[in-house]
């Protein structure tokens, strides 16, 4: 061991950062991006992100040309104190003791790198040094990938150009600031400027080094029928990692991470939220290094990358959204919700009214013919549905889809079920008057375009179109295989058959399903090539059919991610429709995603997934906290007392809908912590609010809790359900009380600002 052990005996300044205080540096200024020489400032309304280029003039200094992070947190302006770093004793050199913006590997930083490139010679060392920067008004699109967007008023972009002169590799870091949302969006591209091939083995869209402090991490984990369970734990020394190698984002973990102060709650304290705009395999790492600094990286999963770049070729990473809030986990979520509604979801339906739907799946499963469908649609119209969706089972000629072991891939109506095709059926259904609605019943359809059953004409003709690895068996899940969307001919096949279906009849809604993960793939890079393919398909279809409302679905919520939201304004949150479980799932999902994006419906009891029976009002109240209210059941089987409750529930769902679609969501009580989960939605202009209040278990012979509201104007008066009037201060500091009968009580309360 060389050097001395007295670590604190000497301190070295590494951040030679004494910026000139300029008027531009004020957080209240209009400048979202300030560049002062090689100092960079990004400002949102309540966030600042500052980094600089290490100015060592000696190029042999390991940090020369490195980007160092100075601050990511609440707004700051003017000079900030220089970071003091203990002198380097031991194995960890200066690189391992500082906060690096884009850590490479192989030169002394022993933490998780943001990039790892295998050079043609075999080694994996890179040295990326600052070259120049460009400031771009607005935000350029990401080639082939979903991305947030905005006008020059909404967003400004800083591009920092880095270069490895030893291997001729150019890396551009792109930072886009949406000041109103306190959001900073980063993506990275890597270009091979040399003569040989290189392989990108890992690439993080975002890497961020936070200072020495205790932090908790919050993530969403789950599986089929129990998606988006919130998990919070202390960030410990070492690497804490999660992700997906299913080929899709998956229900196992969501591509979302929050880092919070250990004292942060729903409504108070610092919270950093990170959300990866990608639908494929991903990896999140949180590492507390030996020096106590915390590094977080989000990006591609290295197990599904190994991306080869020939001379002149570029790999672009997905983008990662970061938001910062001082108002706790709730404030973080609201920033993401607002950003996603206005600057990610391209569909016009993102904030537009959506019809009340009745879906045939839990009503009929595979067991129906044309007359059953007509019957259910008529009954749907009579109970107030405005859209009827024909789910799985309508297609297949030589391999009719009458069960889940045949037909996927053969997207032609089953002639035994629909002898005249879909056209006349859809005409019949769209001729029906939706009761108490100004419109006729609309028609929607279910598809699962990325899949194929071996029992299909498609597979007989194109066995090579499925994902496979040489002669290894093609393992089936739910009797199906995955088409290889990396192949342009497969992309075109899907675009063509979908266009044909949507042009063949007046279809205004599509439930786009995807029911298994990827197994054998031809190479790790096939996974990302597939993603580029699926995004081409979704971009093309949604651009061609802007008036069709697409809902994503993947065994429930297994592809509930920002990449899908960019094209589909709505995603089926879970196949578990049990209303009590749904409170957990929907509130978990709301950590990153707006309520408007969640598909939620009333289903019959006992619930098909859990066997639990919950009153129809409770089921209705939970379902109306989603983007499109609806029913997934057989209308003929609805008990009379439930039928009697439906008109009022539908009317209420329509009344609260604008607040769900466009308002702010406040999670007042979490189901993990309280027997009385409570959620408040406040309209964009603050003039209206609606409280959803639930009791899970009976509360016998015991005092009643008060539910305290949040986010109101404390000085204003609000009428409560049209009778009493209280000040915002009273509603937030005293609260309201409600009494429920037994288990599964629910209450929806309406507030109008006076
Ligand atoms: C890399 O990204 C930057 C910033 O978006 C962009 O200006 C540049 O054109 C990209 N380079 C390539 C080769 O795509
Ligand atoms: C194909 O379908 C038949 C019935 O139509 C079923 O018995 C068989 O198991 C299916 N084969 C596969 C591989 O799913
Ligand atoms: C349309 O509805 C009529 C009347 O209910 C029925 O006789 C006919 O079979 C239906 N046609 C189709 C294609 O569903
Ligand atoms: C239709 O509206 C009438 C009048 O408001 C109401 O009595 C009836 O219950 C409603 N029916 C349905 C199915 O919504
Ligand atoms: C307040 O109004 C609601 C409906 O508007 C009604 O159901 C409730 O009984 C009223 N409460 C009181 C205390 O008047």
From TrEMBL:
Domain Glycosyl hydrolase family 36 N-terminal intervals: 66-309
GO biological process, one term: carbohydrate catabolic process
Molecular function (Gene Ontology), one example: alpha-galactosidase activity
Keyword list, A-Z: Glycoprotein, Glycosidase, Hydrolase, Magnesium, NAD, Signal
First and last residue of the signal peptide: 1-23
Cofactor(s) demanded: Mg(2+); NAD(+)
Active site: 513 (nucleophile), 575 (proton donor)
Database matches in Gene3D superfamilies: Aldolase class I, alpha-galactosidase from lactobacil brevis, Golgi alpha-mannosidase II
Pfam families: Glyco_hydro_36C, Glyco_hydro_36N, Melibiase
EC number: 3.2.1.22
Taxonomy, superkingdom: Eukaryota
Domain Glycosyl hydrolase family 36 C-terminal: start-end pairs: 676-751
Binding site for substrate: 224, 391-392, 478, 511-515, 553, 575
SUPFAM superfamilies assigned: (Trans)glycosidases (SSF51445)
Reactions accelerated catalytically: Hydrolysis of terminal, non-reducing alpha-D-galactose residues in alpha-D-galactosides, including galactose oligosaccharides, galactomannans and galactolipids
Family matches, as PANTHER family: ALPHA-GALACTOSIDASE C-RELATED, GLYCOSIDASE FAMILY 31
Record text on subunit structure and interactions: Homotetramer.
Its biological purpose: Hydrolyzes a variety of simple alpha-D-galactoside as well as more complex molecules such as oligosaccharides and polysaccharides.
Family per similarity comment: Belongs to the glycosyl hydrolase 36 family.
Protein name per its UniProtKB record: Alpha-galactosidase
């Amino acid at each position: 061991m060389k050097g001395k052990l007295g670590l604190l005996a000497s301190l070295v300044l590494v951040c030679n950062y004494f910026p000139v205080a300029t008027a531009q540096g004020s957080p209240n200024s209009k400048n979202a991006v300030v560049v002062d020489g090689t100092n960079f400032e990004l400002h949102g309304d309540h966030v600042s992100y500052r980094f600089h280029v290490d100015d060592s003039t000696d190029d042999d200094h390991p940090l020369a040309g490195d980007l160092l992070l100075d601050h990511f947190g609440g707004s700051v302006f003017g000079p900030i104190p220089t970071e003091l770093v203990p002198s380097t004793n031991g194995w960890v050199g200066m690189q391992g003791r500082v906060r690096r913006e884009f850590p490479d590997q192989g030169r002394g930083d022993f933490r998780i790198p943001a990039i790892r490139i295998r050079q043609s010679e075999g080694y994996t060392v890179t040295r990326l040094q600052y070259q120049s920067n460009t400031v771009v008004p607005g935000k350029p699109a990401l080639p082939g990938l979903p991305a947030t967007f905005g006008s020059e008023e909404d967003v400004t972009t800083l591009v920092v150009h880095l270069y490895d002169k030893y291997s001729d590799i150019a890396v551009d870091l792109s930072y886009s600031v949406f000041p109103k949302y306190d959001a900073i969006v980063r993506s990275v591209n890597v270009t091979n400027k040399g003569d040989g091939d290189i392989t990108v083995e890992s690439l993080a869209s975002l890497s961020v080094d936070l200072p020495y402090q205790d932090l908790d991490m919050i993530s969403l984990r789950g599986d089929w029928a129990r998606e988006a369970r919130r998990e919070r734990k202390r960030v410990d020394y070492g690497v804490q990692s999660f992700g997906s190698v299913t080929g899709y984002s998956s229900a196992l973990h969501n591509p979302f991470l929050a880092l919070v102060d250990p004292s942060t709650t729903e409504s108070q304290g610092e919270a950093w939220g990170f959300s990866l705009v990608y639908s494929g395999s991903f990896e999140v790492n949180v590492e507390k290094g030996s020096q106590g600094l915390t590094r977080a990286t989000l990006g591609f999963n290295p197990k599904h990358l190994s991306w080869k770049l020939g001379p002149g070729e570029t790999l672009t990473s997905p983008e990662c959204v970061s938001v910062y809030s001082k108002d706790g986990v709730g404030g973080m979520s609201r920033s993401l919700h607002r950003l996603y509604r206005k600057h990610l979801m391209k569909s016009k339906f993102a904030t537009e009214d959506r019809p009340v739907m009745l879906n045939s799946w839990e009503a009929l499963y595979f067991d129906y013919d044309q007359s059953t469908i007509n019957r259910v649609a008529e009954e749907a119209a009579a109970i107030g549905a405005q859209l009827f969706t024909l789910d799985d089972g309508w297609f297949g000629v030589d391999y009719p889809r009458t069960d889940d072991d045949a037909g996927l891939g053969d997207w032609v109506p089953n002639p035994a079920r629909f002898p005249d095709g879909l056209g006349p059926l859809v005409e019949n259904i769209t001729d029906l008057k939706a009761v108490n609605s100004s419109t006729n019943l609309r028609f929607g359809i279910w598809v699962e375009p990325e899949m194929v059953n071996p029992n299909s004409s498609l597979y007989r003709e194109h066995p090579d179109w499925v994902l496979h690895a040489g002669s290894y068996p093609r393992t089936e899940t739910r009797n199906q295989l995955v088409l290889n969307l990396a192949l342009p001919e497969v992309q075109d096949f899907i675009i063509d058959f979908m266009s044909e279906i949507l042009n063949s009849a007046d279809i205004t809604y599509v439930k786009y399903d995807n029911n298994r993960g990827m197994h054998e793939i031809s190479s790790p890079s096939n996974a990302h090539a597939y993603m580029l393919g699926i995004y081409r398909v979704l971009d093309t279809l949604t651009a061609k059919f802007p008036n069709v409302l697409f809902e994503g679905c993947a065994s429930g919520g297994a592809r509930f991610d920002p990449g899908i939201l960019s094209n589909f304004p709505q995603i089926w949150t879970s196949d578990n429709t049990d209303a009590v479980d749904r409170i957990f799932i929907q509130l978990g999902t709301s950590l990153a995603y707006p309520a408007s994006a969640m598909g939620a419906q009333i289903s019959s009891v006992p619930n098909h997934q859990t066997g639990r029976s919950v009153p129809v009002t409770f089921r209705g109240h939970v379902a109306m906290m989603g983007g499109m209210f609806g029913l997934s059941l057989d209308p003929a089987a609805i008990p009379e007392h439930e039928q009697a409750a439906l008109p009022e529930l539908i009317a209420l769902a329509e009344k609260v809908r604008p607040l769900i679609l466009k308002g702010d969501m406040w999670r007042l009580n979490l189901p993990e912590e309280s027997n009385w989960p409570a959620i408040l939605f406040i309209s964009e202009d603050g003039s209206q609010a609606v409280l959803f209040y639930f009791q899970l278990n009976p509360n016998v012979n015991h005092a009643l809790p008060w539910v305290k509201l949040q986010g109101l104007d404390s000085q204003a008066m609000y009428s409560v359900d049209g009778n009493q009037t209280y000040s915002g201060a009273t509603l937030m500091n005293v609260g309201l009380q409600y009494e429920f009968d037994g288990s599964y009580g629910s209450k929806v309360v309406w507030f109008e600002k006076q």
